[in-house]
C-alpha cells in the first residue's frame, strides 16, 4: 500500500502534520474587546497625563541623574524607540476598534431601517383601517338620525289617526 492509500483509510488514524509555525487558536471576539478597551484608554486624558509623566520622568532622569546612572543620553534614541513602538501598536488597535464600531453601526443602521419600514407599513395599515371605519360610520345610522326618523313616523301616524277637520 502507498502512503496515499493509508491516509484515505477510515480505520487508520490520520498522521499528525508537523508544521514549523505553531497553531495558535484565539477568540477574535475577545481579542477585539480587549483592543477596544485599550483603544478607549488611549483616547483618555488619563493616558495623556500618564504619558506626559512618563516622558518627563524619563527626560528628567537622563538629564539630572549622575552620568553613570543615565541609560539614554541626550539624543534620547531609546525614548524615541519606545514611543515609536507604542505608536506602532496603538495605531492598529485603534483601527481594529474603529472597524468593530463600524460593524456595530452598520448592524444598528440595518435594524433601524428595518424598524422604520415596519413602522411605515403599520402606519399605512392603520391609516387604511381608520379610513375604512370612517366610511363604515357614515353608513351607520346615528342615534339622532334614528330619533328624528321615529318622530317623523310618529307624526305621520298621528296625522293618520287624527285627520285634520
UniProtKB/TrEMBL annotation:
Domain of life, per lineage: Bacteria
Keywords noted in UniProt: Membrane, Transmembrane, Transmembrane helix
Pfam families associated with the record: DUF1003
Entry-linked InterPro entries: DUF1003
The keyword Methyltransferase belongs to this UniProt entry's keyword annotation: no
Spans traversing the lipid bilayer: 47-64, 76-96
Keyword Nucleotidyltransferase: no
The name this protein goes by in its record: DUF1003 domain-containing protein
Organism: Actinomadura syzygii
Amino acid at each position: 500500500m502507498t502512503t496515499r492509500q493509508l491516509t484515505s483509510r477510515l480505520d487508520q488514524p490520520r498522521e499528525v502534520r508537523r508544521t514549523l509555525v505553531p497553531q495558535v487558536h484565539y477568540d477574535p471576539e475577545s481579542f477585539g474587546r480587549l483592543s477596544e478597551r485599550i483603544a478607549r484608554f488611549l483616547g483618555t486624558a488619563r493616558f495623556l497625563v500618564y504619558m506626559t509623566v512618563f516622558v518627563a520622568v524619563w527626560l528628567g532622569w537622563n538629564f539630572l541623574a549622575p552620568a553613570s546612572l543615565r541609560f539614554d543620553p541626550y539624543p534620547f534614541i531609546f525614548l524615541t524607540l519606545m514611543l515609536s513602538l507604542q505608536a506602532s501598536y496603538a495605531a492598529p488597535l485603534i483601527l481594529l476598534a474603529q472597524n468593530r464600531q463600524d460593524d456595530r453601526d452598520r448592524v444598528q443602521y440595518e435594524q433601524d431601517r428595518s424598524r422604520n419600514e415596519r413602522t411605515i407599513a403599520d402606519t399605512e395599515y392603520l391609516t387604511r383601517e381608520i379610513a375604512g371605519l370612517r366610511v363604515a360610520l357614515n353608513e351607520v345610522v346615528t342615534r339622532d338620525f334614528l330619533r328624528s326618523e321615529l318622530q317623523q313616523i310618529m307624526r305621520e301616524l298621528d296625522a293618520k289617526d287624527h285627520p285634520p277637520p
